[in-house]
Amino acid sequence: MTRGHAEALLPMVESVMAEARLAYPGLDMIAATVGPGTFTGLRVGLATARGLALACARPLLGVGTLEALAQGTGEVERRGRHVLAVMDARRGELYAELFASDLASLAGPRRILPEALGALAAGASLLLVGDGASAATKALPGADLLRSQAPPYPDAAGVAAIAARTPERARPGQEVRPLYLRGPGASPPGASPPGAGSPGAGAPAGRRPGG
Question: Engineering a disulfide at 109: which of 97, 104, 113, 180 sits with its beta carbon 3.0 to 4.6 angstroms away?
């Protein structure tokens, strides 16, 4: 969706809960993606997750968007390859994170120019996933690449699988913050231009709440 997130999200949650025949007290925890991604989408999603966690008195687990993308890949297609999760960050840039075949993060999420992917991947055999896969393919001529059959967007089931696998990462809702790798699209007069800073800069998920 490009707009209307706030209006659509809670009815979708209610629909899924009804389909699962599950009441909110039956939940063990709430999990949500924290970024990178669009400002509005992240704020709406995380605010909703925080509200549910508070109302249900359940912990909240923040999952990186690129981590969720990698989770969607298949074990067979990952065999012998690193997973490069790449999202279109607009303005000719990508959001990227490199994972081992067992989905352990090797290089934390970052905003990067496509031509810098070669240094990030370091000549490894790669499985590409995400809507930035085409740009990554063009930027890595001659590399050993395979395009994943997974959807190019994170799936809620993948987020849930990560939460089930790593429950120790859950925190009270107010402690889970969005991961922004770029400044806001609009700035007050006299402020630095949007997205000012090095395109290659990045930080581990959950450790960089600012742009």
Answer: 97
Phi, psi of 183 (to 5 degrees): -70, 170
Cross-strand partners of 58: none
| Residues 195 and 100 sit within 8 Å (Cβ to Cβ) | no
Selection from 67, 177, 82, 75 nearest residue 130 by Cα: 67
For residue 29, what are the domain limits?
5-65+154-175
Note whether residue 158 is domain-resident: yes
The answer as to whether 120 is a domain residue is yes
Amino acid letter for position 20: A
Question: Do residues 169 and 57 make contact, with C-beta atoms less than 8 angstroms apart?
Answer: no
For residue 83, the Cα-to-chain-centroid distance in whole angstroms is: 14
Nearest in space to 37 (alpha carbons), one of 184, 179, 199: 179
Output the furthest CA–CA distance in the chain (Å, rounded).
Answer: 53
**pLDDT, tens digit, for every residue of 149-185?**
999 999 999 999 999 999 999 999 889 999 999 866 5
Residues whose CB is less than 8 angstroms from the CB of residue 23 and which lie 6 or more positions away in sequence, other chains included: 17
Q: Give per-residue pLDDT as tens, 101-127.
A: 999 999 999 999 999 999 999 889 999
Rounded-to-integer distance, Cα 108 and Cα 205, Å: 7
Q: Is residue 203 part of a domain?
A: no
Contact 155/72 with Cβ under 8 angstroms?
Answer: yes
Q: Checking DSSP bridges between strand 126-129 and strand 60-64, what pairing results, if any?
A: unpaired
